[in-house]
Each structure stands twice: as structure tokens, then as C-alpha cells.
Amino acid sequence: MNLTPEQKARVDIDAALVDAGWILQNRDAINLAAGPGVAVREAKMASGHGFADYLLFVNGKAVGAIEAKPAGHTLSGVELQSGKYAAGLPASLNPPVRPLPFVYMSTGVETRFINGLDPDPRTRAISANLPHIHRPETLAEWIGAETLDAWVKRLHTEGTGLYTAAEDTKPSSLRGRITTMPPVDPGTLYGNQIEAVTNLEHSLKCNRPRALIQMATGSGKTIAAITAIYRLIKYGGARRVLFLVDRSNLAKQAEKEFQGYWAPEVNRKFTELYNVQRLSSNTIMDSSKVVIATIQRVYSMLKGEPELDPTLEEGSQFESGAEAILEPLSVVYNPALPLEFFDVVVIDEVHRSIYTLWRQVVEYFDAFLIGLTATPSKQTFGFFNKNLVMEYDHERAVADGVNVDFEIYKIRTRITEGGSTVEAGPDTMLGFRNRRTRALRWQSAEDDLTYDPNELDRRVVAKDQIRTIIRTFRDRLPVDLFPGRKEVPKTLIFAKDDSHAEDIVEIIRDEFGRGNSFCQKITYRVTDAKPEDLIQAFRNQYEPRIAVTVDMVATGTDIKPIEIVMFLRAVKSRLLFEQMKGRGVRIIDPNDLRAVSGEEAIAKTHFVIVDCVGITETPLTDSQPLERKRTVSLQTLLEHVAMGGTDEAVLSSLASRLARLDRQCGPEEQARVAEASGGPRLHDLCRAIVSGLDPDRQIAEARSVFEVPEGSEPMEQQVGHAAEALLKRAVEPLATKPELRTLLVELKRELEQVIDEVSVDELLEAGASVEAREKARALVTDFEQFIAANKDEIDALQFFYAQPYGKRLSFNDIKALAEAIKAPPRSWTPERLWRAYELLERDKVRGASGQRLLTDMVSLLRFATHKDGELVPYGVQVRERFENWLAQQGNRGRPFSLEQVNWLEMMRDHIATSLEIQLDDLDYAPFAEAGGLGKAVQVFGSGLREVIGELNEVLAA
């Protein structure tokens, strides 16, 4: 039976209504008592308003209507007609709200919805590819909500009778309640977090469905998001919020953030007020207000799967390459998880997978979408409708003291840059190592072995290349990177793969002469400990000092004590590089740093990127389109096939990869493949895919399937259907046999690596990068130009230029200067300036690894204006001047008692942090604990004023 487009739309809408729990009835067979939700077809409206395609009744009362149109019909033009139905209900029906509040427009492919309870009703799409309709229980809940006026009075005044001008004639909606949210309570939030929450709520009040928050790694995105979620639940009445992550360890990390969050108004923990559930099964509790889940698990639940293998949640979609798949996964309506199940979806660490592989999962829910990211791409902006509500980059975060800045240190070796050649000979032995088992055999080289840098640690392992880098790192660490530090700062090293990580760990332990606990591998293939336990130990314990990972700690994971990030692996994605780099930016309390790194770690003032592969000089891209080469792993390509994908670019890469594997496998491996596949060998699998990709073969298949007459060409759509069918048949053994996919991945891992222990590497360069020096030089130049340009405007600068200057330099002067240089667009801090001078003039700068005090601005100004030939921390200068002054007093016959010296040392330390000391200061800590001003008078007698005056004169600038 051939259906018209409108009839086909109604069939699809009927199915959607039934799925959502509605009972379908014709106009001549109405029985409103048949169930809580009844949809009546072709319902007659009041005179002049025609017939509604569907009239919706909840608990016997009319609440809404559906206007059906054929697929392809633009629905914005139907709004007026739908409005007629909403206003044209017969007077005798007595609905709970007039006009009808809930109006739907659907083509059976897409559905749009108008909620008349909103303060300024606006059409919104609630389905991109499915004719979704809300459940009758949901509409009943919305109809039963209290008015906005009652909501505001109850929530904000707790019965004190506060007058409001809020709507009191109809039930309130989520969007209406959001408009009444009070200003953000600062509590313990940083200024950037307050700004982010405020801007987000402004966007929500404007009813913008999607919003993106871009905040630098480590600047408090998660806490800002939790604050917004708390307020949306409390003040907006949000029923349920989904917090989406892309791997399980980030879900656990988010759960801890929720557990540690204190609601400022009531001083209670979030989890004491609302139930937070981190999904470890496919069941959501009714009491859960916040659900933390991986996107993989939500997809599994939408498919109706009873459970999900937890290992599928371990890997990040960012690093796995899954986001390179061009074809989104399809979803269907699940009554157990209806589209209105969540009011808000917060997507943590958004990246390409949300608008490629997982797009339809994210868009399934009729909810506000809020994205959190440190590294947005242009595609991310597009997905969130360019609604960037917060932009807080690394530079601002550093200036605000929310992040620490970084320096780049390069280590270049001959083999890293040019590869090597091992000449064959009777005494030349090469090792051959099985990738999977790491079993090693040795044989003499029959031919010269030449390899380029791209083959390092993949086809060839040059042990001396790794050793040269690690030895250089060890030797330069206490000299160039962190002068004066005897213990290795917490260091995170990125390796190419698990085997490479294993080699690095072995060489690090050897070169540093330390035990197993000193350096640990943290990858998904560690079997004797849980990865999250290893991460926890790296974060909170003294050892390990060095962690080697591939991608497990690349994004999202919070390890504040990290002070060195080393790249022994190159990446091409700017987004991934920024995420990896971001592991070092987080600030940490000095006491917490010393607890895990020893007393020498005074403060985390910056971190160092050790670039061993030239990554900081490599052009990086926002997105990496899937090319027909080795940029995407074999496992990812096979997963695409397993999920039903037939993207031709992916299958082309897969065919190429299988052909390469075919050439490398011997008879034994080929037999294992044939057994697992049920007959076809690698060559057969590859040939079937290539045949399915052949355009001529696809056209021929379309001619046959669609019986295209001779002399005519099949339509593009017919060719597309035929191509998809061909490709599905071609990959059927791979798609339907998990054991075959597992075997292919294992075979690739088992292929041998060559172990080169012959080539001797040599260091080409180790030092700060050219870019880092140029950046430091530009900063220093700008700073000195600023000083010269403002010498007559800023009091602190007048002190250094005016001779004589009648006013003593005060702490407030220095504070005003620090605030002036910290303000945008400069965003300079004493730490950044000090490190810049240290990088350019190392032999003239002392105290580079110490924590900067505000008074260090004095030292910076004296050095920048060439009054001092050495840059020394102000506190060190004060101590040196004090020791000289104290010695001079003894030589002049003016000795001080031990008690007096104790008081003088307290005064010295006060001047070091405050530039001067006054009599009034002696009544405050630490002097107050020693007896205060009264005691000082007893100790020094009438000479107290003279002593204070001398100290101010001699010790201060």
C-alpha cells in the first residue's frame, strides 16, 4: 500500500505517541477514562477553528494538540495554525489552562514544541530524527506545578509574605522559574567562577538552548558547573540533571567534586541536600537529582541493554580516535529513558565526539545543553550555536592566580631528529621483540637497517635514544629546570604506546638509580593495580615521583602537584596537546605541595614542558579529518564496523590496514584468522571491502537491486543504498565476530619490534626553547617600557626616578603598581617577570625557584631600572642588610641582648613582607604573641623609636 507523505507522517506520529505511553483513539470512539493520556485523532475544535490532527487529554482534561505535516515541510510556518488549535478549544471542555499550553508540530521526522506555560513561549526542536512526544505523566506534572508567584514566595521568603509581581494565573515552568533566580552568592568561589555562573544563567534566562563555557584547565570549570546545577535545582526547580563525561575515572572525579561541594546559603554539602548518583549500572534511582554517567553508558541505556561492560568506559573518546568517525551512532526512543528525563545536560570536556559519533545521544534529550571545555574548536562553537557564555583563557587564569604559567625546555638528539642506520656485519646483532608478549630473540643483521624518526618506538626501539634523553633530563634538572631542588618534582611523561612506556620506565629507574616506587607506568594495561589507585598515589603520596602514561592522564584528570610535563610522544591535534599540557597548570597550596614533594618545594610558581619530540614547534590543527593512512588505530576502525558504520573513508583505511597485516602474517597467523572468521582470510576480508568501495560495483549493484532499465542511470539515493548494502556484506565477518576483531588487534600487537642497541645517540641541544626566550624578552621589554612611560604617574615608580624623593616607598604604593601591571591587557605578575629575567640573565638572577612576595616588586624595579646589577628576592636583600647592620652595631660597641635580637629579627621579617614597620604594627601578630608594644618598650626602653627608624632606613628600599 502506497502512503502519501502526510499519511506516512501520521503513521510515524502514531508510533511515537504509543511509545510515549499515549492511548490513540478516533473521534467516534473516545473514551477518556482509558488511561492517563489519550490522543484523539481529528478532534473537532470550536467553530471556525477546524479539526486538530491530534487533541491530547491528560487525566480527562484537554492540555495540548499536535499538528501533523508531511516530511520535509518547514514547521515554522505551522505555528499560527497550531496557535488556532490552542485557542480554539470548545468552551464546554473546561481545560485546566487556557489556551491549551502544549502544542506540537511534527512531520514524523522532526518535532517542534511550544510550551505555553513559559513566560515568553518560543518554539523549540525536541527531536531531530524521531517524532518524540512528551509522556502524559510529564504533562500532568507540568500542569500541576505551582504558579510562579507562589514559587517565588515559598522559595525565597519561606512564608514571610514577600510581594512579587510574578505570574499567578497559570502553572510555572522551568524557563519561568529560571527568570527569578537570585544573584550568585560568592561563597568561596573565584571571581571567574562567579562570572561563568552569572553569564550562564543570563543565557538560560534568555531561553538559549545551548551554552558553552570555556575555562582554562585547572581554573574551576567543574565547581562552576556544580554551582550552576545546585542553583538550577534549588531556584529553577530542575527535576533531574545529567553530568556527562567520556570515561569512568572522570566520572569518579566529578562525583568527589559533588561530594565536597558546600552550598553557600545553607552551609551544607550538596550530597546532603540532593542525591547524586554515579552510574555503575544501567539503572537510575528515582531519588537521583544529579546523574553522573559516561556517554558510552547512556548510549547503552538508550539501546535498552541491561548492562555495559565497564572496560568500555575506561578509554577517553578524545584519545581513542573515535571522534574521527564521521558517522554518528543512531538512537531510538526508549520509554524507560524518555526525552524529558533530564532538564539539563552538562557535558564535561566537550570535544569532537559530541558532534560526530555521539551527537544523537546528546541531542536525544529535551534539555538545556551546557558544554564545559578548556580547548574549544570551531566545530565546538558551531554545535553550541556560537553561544560562548564564558571565555577564560590560560593567560587570564595565570594573571588571576588560578593557573600557573609554563616554560618550555627542549631536548634534541641526533636519532630523534634524523633516525639512524645499523650496518650489517658478522658482529652486529639485532633484537626482535614481540609487541604483545615482549618476548625477545636475537639474530645477526643480514642487511643494513635504516629507520627514520617516525618509526622510533613503533617499528624500531633505539634504547640509547631514550637513555640519552632521560640522562640529559636527570643531569639538567637541578641546574636548568629547578635550580636547588634535590628531589625530582612530580613529573608526567607521555609515551607513544604501552610498550614504549615500559621501555621509558625501565630506563628511568636505571638512570636515576631508584626503585620501582620512584617511577610507575599508568596505562590501561597495568594489571596489578587499579589505574585510579595509581593516579591517586601519584596525586597524594611522595612516590611515585615520575609517572609514564599514554593517554590515561591526558585529559581531565586533576593532579595538582605536577611540575614537569614531558613529551616523548608527538600529537597533531591542538586540542589534545592543550589538554595534555594542561595537566601541569593547576595551582596547589604550598603546604600540600611540600607534603608530596618535600620541604625544598617551597611553592608551585610554574611548570615546565620538556619537549623531546619537537611538539612545540609542530603546526597543530583544530581537527584531524580521517585520512586513508595510519592516523587512526586499527581497534578504532574495527569498533566503527562493529557499531554498524559503513563510512567509506574508515573502511578504506581498514582495508589498507588489513592488507598490511596480511603481508606481515605467516601461515600460522593466517590459519588463526580463518578459524576466527569462519573461513575468510585476511586477503579475502580486504578484497571484499575494496570491492564494496568500487564505484562501478556500487552502480552495478544499484541497477540490479532497483531494476534500473537499460540505458538509464540509477539515482544517487539508489546508489547510496546499494553501496551501504555491499559494504555491510563485506564487513559482516568483522561486524558479527568479536573474537575475530580481538584477534586482529592482538596480531598487530604481536608483530615484532626491532631493538637497536648498536646506534649511539648524541645530544644536540638542551635548553629553553627559542620561543620561550623570545616570549621572555618581549615581556621584559614591555615591562621596562611601561616603567619608563609611567614614571611620573605611579607613586612607586616616582620613588625610583625622583632624586631626591621626599616620601618613603610604602606597601600601598607597591600594591597599587602590582594591580596596575596585573590588569588586562598586560596580566603581568611578579612570578612571570622574575622567570623572564631568570631565563634571559640566569647568572644575574637568584631565588628563581622560590615563592614570590609582593615586595619582590621592589627588587624587580631596581633591576629593571639598572639600580641593582643582580636580581635578588627582596626578603634575601633585607636579611643580608640586617646581618651587615647587626655586625656594624657590634663593632661600634652597641651589642644587643638575645631577647632584643629576637625582636629585631621579627621586625626584619615584617619589613621583608611590608617594606616598613611602625610602632602600631607591634600590637599585631607576630609581635602581639611576644607581648606587643608594651613589651617592646620594656625590651628597648627609650631607644625603641630610634631602632625602628634605623631599620626602616637601612633595610627598606
What does this structure look like?
By secondary structure, the chain is α/β, with parallel strands linked by helices. The strands form six sheets. It has a seven-stranded mixed beta sheet with strand order 1-2-3-4-5-6-7, with helices on both faces. A seven-stranded parallel beta sheet has the order 12-13-9-14-15-8-16. A seven-stranded mixed beta sheet has the order 24-25-23-26-27-17-29, sandwiched between helices. Strand 6 and strand 7 form a beta hairpin. Helix 23 (667-677) packs antiparallel against helix 28 and helix 25 (695-705) crosses helix 26 (716-730). The longest helix has 20 residues, at 770-789. The protein is flat, with a radius of gyration of 35 Å. The termini are far apart. The model is unreliable at 159-163, 318-326 and 623-631 (pLDDT under 50).
Number of strands: 29
| C-alpha geometry | flat
Sheet with the most strands, sense and barrel status: 7 strands, mixed
Quickly give the structural class.
alpha/beta
Number of helices: 37
Strand order of the largest sheet: 1-2-3-4-5-6-7
- Unreliable residue runs: 159-163, 318-326, 623-631
In percent, how helical is the residue content?
A: 40-55%
Mean pLDDT: 84
Task: Please give the radius of gyration in angstroms.
Answer: 35 Å
Report strand %.
5-15%
Distance separating the two termini: 95 Å
Question: Main attributes?
Answer:
single chain; 957 residues; alpha/beta; seven-stranded mixed beta sheet; seven-stranded parallel beta sheet; 37 helices; 41% helix; 15% strand; flat
